[in-house]
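[Primary structure, fold]
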Amino acid sequence: MLIHPWDAADEDEWRAWLGEHDFGQLIAAGRGRDVPIVVPTHFTFDGVRTAWLHLARPNPVWAALEENPRALLTVVDDYTYVRSEWNAGASTPDGRGVPTSYYATVQLACDVRIVDDPAEKAELLNRQLGHFEPGSGRLPVSAEDDPDRRQLPGIRGIELTVTDVRAKFKYGGNKEVEHRYAIAARLEERGGRADLAARGHLLRRVSIT
């Protein structure tokens, strides 16, 4: 992934953003495969260097992870399309502007440990339940009591230890401040799916440059 200096995210920025995002794609290349295995998945992250998730036992990712216990966990969100005339700037005719995309992404390169011990899988699931549905009334997952005991063999857990991070917040950081404010106004006016989130990043990053 290309990261220009003006799009780079510092540690505080990407950690705060990832703390609000818990769905991404697990990518496992294995060894000698034509293309990697890509699995959309929820996950939990401790905010420091460890993430956890679980997948069904028939998932094709397991063979790739056993061949090579390395994976990439990637999250992309707050993305929007910036029209050519918006991106043109004062010195470029609207008809000659170049469109672009705004987005935030964090890519975590990880060592993989597969979790098959029933008690440890139950612990992993309880961590996820605590994150995704606190106070829901769901009893703690048990490796000893049914129906959990019977269902646990149908999944495998994954513990990911982060070894490297690539984080990019692409929100017009190479533009003049006045131009960025103009694009922010356009995003607010359009008000599409992620326009307001993108606008928030754009304005926040203006304030720290």
About this structure: DSSP finds seven helices and seven strands in the chain. The first helix runs from residue 11 to 18. The chain has a mean pLDDT of 95. Residues 52 and 125 are 9 Å apart (CA to CA).
